[in-house]
Specification:
alpha+beta, 4 strands
């Protein structure tokens, strides 16, 4: 009989996966820093204001789509610990199943370190 414990990874994995997105947004914000300073100093014209709102909306929408995608992947990924293996299953369109075998030697001596 196989003992199977099934659980999910911590939800902070989503933020870890979004790290590249945060990096891209950080770089984009500092490449246009001169335009932002001019916008603050000179005030807003209607055309520039519309451009800023559209650009900000597009960036926010892309960020939210990436967050939603990562959340769906997280919610459909399970980790199972069986007798001699760890199985990571992702039940999305791209079904993926990774099995990591565990090998244990019976030569463990109480005073020695683990022999794996």
């Amino acid at each position: 009989m196989e003992n199977k414990i099934r659980f999910r990874n911590h939800i902070s994995v989503i933020l870890e996966q979004l790290g590249a997105t945060f990096g891209i947004l950080f770089v984009l914000s500092f490449t246009n820093i001169d335009d932002v300073i001019d916008y603050i100093e000179k005030g807003s014209s209607e055309e520039l204001s519309l451009t800023v709102y559209i650009g900000g909306g597009v960036i926010l929408a892309v960020f939210l789509l990436i967050f939603l995608y990562q959340w769906i992947i997280w919610s459909k990924t399970y980790i199972s610990i069986c007798d001699n293996s760890i199985v990571i299953e992702r039940n999305t369109w791209n079904k993926k199943k990774n099995t990591i075998g565990l090998k244990y030697r019976a030569e463990f001596v109480g005073n020695a370190s683990w022999n794996m």
